[in-house]
Structure formats: C-alpha cells, structure tokens
Write a structure and sequence with these properties.
Protein name: Flavodoxin family protein
Cofactor: FMN; [4Fe-4S] cluster
Structural class: alpha/beta
Shape: globular
GO molecular function, one term: oxidoreductase activity
Bound molecules: flavin mononucleotide
CATH topology: Rossmann fold
Family: Belongs to the SsuE family. Isf subfamily.
Organism: Methanomicrobium antiquum
Distance between the termini: 15 Å
Radius of gyration: 15 Å
Length: about 190
C-alpha cells in the first residue's frame, strides 16, 4: 500500500512534470509517508464510453485494456492523490482528463473511494495556461469530496525543454510546500 499516488500525465521521459512530481514526492517522503509516481508515458488511456457499467458497484471500469483499472486499484489503497500535467493549449493533457473522468465514475458508482482523499493539481508549461489548467483539474477534487492542500502560490512552474523547470526555484518550492501540506493533512487525519 502506498500513502500518496502521484499521476504524471506527461508522455516525456524524465520531463518537467516528472521533476515536479519528484520534488513533491521527496517532500512527502521526508515526513514518513510513501509515494508512487505513475507515469502515463507509453500508456494509451482511453475516454469514458458512458456504458454506465461502473454504476453497478463493480469497482472497475469496463475498459480493461489500458491499465487504468490497475491505477484505480492503487488509488483505492492510498490516502492521497496528486495529478500533474504539462499545459497543452492552455489546458491539461487529454489523457489525464480521460483518466480522472473514469476514476470519478468508478468512485461514484461504488464506495466513493475518492472521498476524503487529500491532494491537488500541479501544472507546468512554457508560458501560459497554467492557472486555467489548475482550475480545470480542481473540478475533479471538489466534486469528489476530496480535500485539497494549498501552498504559498498556485502549483505552477515554468519550463519548455526537458529539465528547464529545475531553474524555476519558486515553482519547485511551491510544489515542495504543497507536498508538505498534503502530508500534514494526511497525518492529522490519522
Ligand atoms: C502539444 C503541446 C501544447 C503545448 N501547449 C502549451 C501551452 O498552451 N502553454 C504553455 O505554456 N506550454 C505549452 N506547451 C509546452 C509544455 O507545456 C512544456 O514544454 C512542458 O514543460 C512539458 O512538460 P513535460 O516535459 O513534462 O512533458 C505545449 C507543448 C505541447 C507538446
């Protein structure tokens, strides 16, 4: 069982989203909680097909060939869930939206495993659309009765080429503090 699952929606290996996920994971692990960063690289996460089979409390999505059910199983055992995305045309990556819509449907149709989970979104981009991406991803948290941790800025960072985000010290420190707050809430709820 892992305490906090971090979804990294970037298709790039060791890209900027990964660097932010790692920064956040390290801050969480320093407090004694465990983390698992799950990369979407190489996956082909499909969109909800509105078959409604998850409404029969199956605890699973009917689309069973893209690895999302395995991610759902890990999330069910965790206390925290963080989603991190590169900004694509001012929004989150499409496959992350597909994933969180299907995760929401399975939670809604069953035992509401997302309820009271702690977390929040993280976004990285070259220049613009970060706050819109954060707002878009927050919709997932607020409709699912989740508890969102804050930081001393929004969880956004700047970088284009792989690794560039390492130069954004303010972005890194915002995400570190966010990770500490995720841990603080989880540990306070125990
Ligand atoms: C298809 C595409 C669309 C993008 N759109 C935006 C955008 O709207 N705003 C922005 O600031 N950066 C945009 N970018 C740049 C990425 O967000 C940026 O390179 C980011 O650091 C990539 O993260 P990664 O290394 O984790 O993949 C876009 C990149 C791609 C490939």
């Amino acid at each position: 069982m892992t305490d906090v699952i971090i979804l990294n929606a970037s298709p790039r290996e060791s890209g900027n989203t990964h660097i932010l996920c790692k920064e956040c994971a390290d801050a969480i692990e320093k407090t004694g909680l465990s983390t698992h960063i799950i990369s979407f690289r190489g996956k082909n996460i499909k969109s909800c097909i509105a078959c409604n089979s998850c409404k029969k409390n199956t605890g699973r999505c009917a689309i069973d060939d893209d690895g999302l059910n395995e991610i759902i199983d890990e999330i069910k055992d965790a206390k925290g869930l963080i989603v991190a995305s590169p900004v694509y045309f001012g929004t989150a990556r499409g496959d992350l939206m597909s994933a969180i819509q299907r995760i929401s449907m399975v939670s809604y149709g069953g035992d509401r495993f997302l309820s009271k989970m702690v977390g929040g979104p993280v976004a990285v981009g070259r220049r613009g659309g970060h706050t819109a991406t954060i707002q878009e991803l927050l919709m997932f948290y607020f409709i699912n009765d989740m508890i969102v941790a804050g930081s001393d800025y929004w969880n956004i960072a700047f970088g284009k080429a792989k690794g560039e985000v390492s130069e954004d010290e303010e972005g890194l420190s915002t995400v570190r503090k966010f990770g500490e707050n995720v841990s603080l809430i989880i540990n306070s709820l125990q």
